[in-house]
Write a structure and sequence with these properties.
2 copies of one chain form a homodimer. With 359 residues, chain A is an alpha+beta fold. Chain A has 11 helices and 15 strands. Chain A has 2 domains: 145 residues, 2-Layer Sandwich (60s Ribosomal Protein L30, Chain: A); 209 residues, PurM-like C-terminal domain (Phosphoribosyl-aminoimidazole Synthetase, Chain A, domain 2). A 7-stranded mixed β-sheet of chain A has the order 10-12-7-13-11-14-15, sandwiched between helices. In chain A, strand 14 and strand 15 form a beta hairpin. In chain A, helix 3 packs parallel to helix 4 and helix 5 crosses helix 7. The radius of gyration of chain A is 21 Å and the shape is globular. Strand 2 of chain A pairs antiparallel with strand 3 of chain B.
């Protein structure tokens, strides 16, 4: 059934029923969805809040992504910003502007993704708004977190090390791969990446550039792009002096951290952590995986500075891989290439008001 | 200059500079715009949060509204939801999806409206996101408030009175008037309603249905539609048992309050407070002003229930007009017409997924 036949009130009631049931276990929420505003009792002395938007045709393409993945990603990108402050995420609010011609199934799968993300991050959906739109789907989310202390972008000091969690460039690799798929390949991806459990493999493989790519290799990079997971920061925050999440690309986000801290940096390209899946896909596509790691956006890893960490640091103990990729200096921002040559760090990344080709 | 030539980072810097200067006087804000997320120290034990979206072609038409009014209204509709919980509004976050072809002047005037609203409501802009969009302008805002106590929609009990602040239907009247204006008339309105100070009058009058309407009569109803002001609730909250803001129309919002409280109501149509400006415009247009008062949306007045209030009640003392329009009952929801005839209350209002004519 199309959304305009279901009606806003019926949709709101369904959302309210679904999420307020989950809310019963969150005793800090005093007024859930369904009043003029939500009410909660903060449990810590510092509240952290962020909001991000996602616009069809700019941030996502419905030819590539499933409604489930879209919902999940909307939450992840906001949770990532809160986690980058070194606190725990707690509450979510949503704005959903959906085409009236959208199918009810689209709407339900989108909220399946939202619900899965709420479960995964242990956050509560406490409010939002929904409306029809004339053209493109438009989404925004607000995430509120809390903690007793927090970490900003401002605390980096010369002599400290620069660390990053996980691997970089996977999301850019996943996007590059998606762009090369046929319509049938994209449909296969949308079907398979529409849940938290990776597809067990088998069945159809992907055809790219007239070569075959196994699902086991493609899945990790596609998943990083379509269904990214924000990194928990509880184990990192106590030792981090400055922190930012890698959303627009390592170089641009590192530049922001350096701008705010008033420092320089040296980054070693051969240290940028790359996943084996990305390296394999990069080889198949003939792409520069180091460039993806340096400037590809949407990795949602944590970039932070700290005095030198022991190998047995709290993050690694928690199972979060951490790599030292350089150090903070009092001088310029320098990149040391794989060949050992130095060059100035160029803060390349995505600017939303800049058209393709004008950067 | 078009936005895509200015660039997102330059725009963000301008917004950050403008609003963070104002933030210096709000000591509760520990991290303002410019980090992964904002941080504040709550001063009360209850946090209240709401979010609302506004989509071009659904919630607003750029032929009718100035960028200033659009920015101001976006804040008002969210502040109104927070005030309807009986608490004070404190913080604002924005999402702005703007066409790349938009002029920088549009952007600046929009933020003039946001800044004026922040000043008017004494709230601080602490975060947000901006991006280009392919088609329609899309806006959303989140407002956070705080207080020690709050008022929901659930507390109304039989025997209590139903009150409303200010006058009803002015916004619907303003919209009806806008729809009848020529392009030149609308341009005049956009120019004049682009600031907080009412235009001093004189000069051109408006032509409607081949009659002349003085600016002095038109201004109040146009202003209520284009530049609505949320009602402060501090003086009302201590005596209100249930409260909601009138955003979708008196009847639908009263129905929501009754649904949540599990009560009935009797409303007297002859008591619905109407402004003299609306009555004059209604007479000129030949429209039913009582219907506007009953079902017109976007008034942003407060509808609340309470035991009978003395004439010298706290709201009136604060200069907020309050009118008793009926009482809460244990029975059905009844409307007593101007002719004394009773009929069932029909919760008519605007549903965003319902197309025109399908309601």
């Amino acid at each position: 059934m199309q959304l305009h036949r279901v009606g806003e009130l019926a949709l709101l009631k369904a959302v309210r029923k679904r999420f307020n049931t989950a809310l019963q276990r969150d005793r800090s929420v005093l007024v859930p969805i369904g009043d003029d505003a939500a009410v909660f009792a903060p449990e810590a002395s510092r509240l952290v809040v962020t909001t991000d938007l996602m616009a069809e045709g700019v941030h996502f393409d419905l030819a590539y992504t499933s409604p489930y993945a879209l919902g999940f990603k909307l939450v992840s990108v906001n949770v990532s910003d809160v986690m980058a402050m070194g606190v725990r995420a707690r509450y979510l609010l949503l704005n959903v502007g959906m085409k009236q011609e959208s199918d009810e199934a689209f709407f339900e799968e989108f909220y399946d993704g939202i619900a899965a993300a709420c479960e995964y991050y242990r956050i509560s959906l406490i409010g939002g708004d929904m409306s029809g739109v004339r053209n493109d789907l438009f989404l925004s989310a607000t995430v509120i977190g809390e903690g007793e202390t927090f970490v900003t972008r401002r605390g980096a000091r010369p002599g400290e090390r620069i660390y990053v969690t996980g691997t970089l460039g996977d999301s850019a690799c996943g996007l590059a791969l998606l762009k090369l798929l046929s319509a049938a390949g994209r449909a296969l991806v949308r079907r398979r990446i529409s849940g938290m459990t990776p597809h067990s493999g088998g069945g159809e493989a992907l055809r790219v550039n007239e070569k075959t790519l196994s699902w086991e290799v493609a899945d990790p990079v596609l998943r990083r792009h379509l269904l990214p997971l924000a990194r928990p920061s509880e184990s990192i925050a106590p030792c981090a002096t400055a922190m930012i999440d890698v959303s627009d690309g390592l170089f641009i986000d590192l530049s922001r951290l350096c701008d705010e801290s008033g420092v320089g940096a040296t980054i070693y390209m051969d240290r940028l952590p790359r996943s084996s899946a990305m390296v394999q896909v990069g080889a198949l596509l003939g792409c520069d995986t180091i460039a993806w790691a340096a400037s590809g956006g949407e990795d949602y890893e944590l970039l932070f500075t700290a005095p030198e960490l022991p190998d047995a640091n709290p993050a690694e103990t928690e199972g979060i891989p951490v790599t030292c990729i350089g150090e903070i200096t009092g001088g310029d921002r320098i990149v040391v290439g794989v060949d050992g040559m130095q060059s100035p760090l160029q803060p390349t990344g995505y600017e939303h008001f800049i058209r393709n080709g004008e950067q």
